[in-house]
Amino acid sequence: MKSIVSTVVMLLSSTAVLCLTGCNTVSTTVQQEIGGPHFPPSDPAMVQILRTAPTRPHVRLGEIRAEPYSENTDAATIEAALRKAAAKLGADAAVVVYDRTQVTGAQVVGGFLNRSVETITGRIIVAVAIKYQ
């Protein structure tokens, strides 16, 4: 009985920790350019976040899609996730080309006779990873 109680307590505490930390995280997906150059990973702290393409010569390495799990996720957390993902491609910068709230899903709500469909919206950020030449 004592082991069951300790297991339940441990499960509940780990779930609480995941809920508290999971609300301020960002999911990223990296899509490398087909036929593009390959570079070793770079330092995420050195990756710049830009809003417009730089005028100096560069090559495109791939795209990064970031989806914050919460509307309350701050910009610094989103930028850190973009830096980390771009660094995996060896990027010097990530140029943000799309930052919008859009429909990401739907759910059915209500009872048997009064069902309706509600849309689920979320913030989507797309950046292009680049390497300076």
Beta-strand percentage range: 35-45%
Range of helix content: 25-40%
Q: How many individual domains?
A: 1
Topology as a string of helices (H) and strands (E): HEEEHEE
**Highest-level CATH class:** Alpha Beta
Strand order of the largest sheet: 1-3-5-4-2
Low-confidence stretches: 5-21
Q: Give the overall shape.
A: elongated
**CATH topology group:** Translation Initiation Factor IF3
Largest sheet: 5 strands, mixed
How many separate helices? 2
| Count of individual beta strands | 5
What Rg, in angstroms, do the CA atoms define?
Answer: 20 Å
What's the gist of this structure?
This protein is of the alpha+beta class. The chain has helices spanning 2-22, 75-88; strands at residues 26-32, 48-50, 58-68, 93-109, 116-132.
Describe this structure in words.
It is a single chain. The N and C termini lie far apart (65 Å). This protein has helices spanning 2-22, 75-88; strands spanning 26-32, 48-50, 58-68, 93-109, 116-132. By secondary structure, it is an alpha+beta fold. Residues 5-21 have low confidence and may be disordered. A hairpin with a 6-residue loop joins strand 4 (93-109) and strand 5 (116-132).
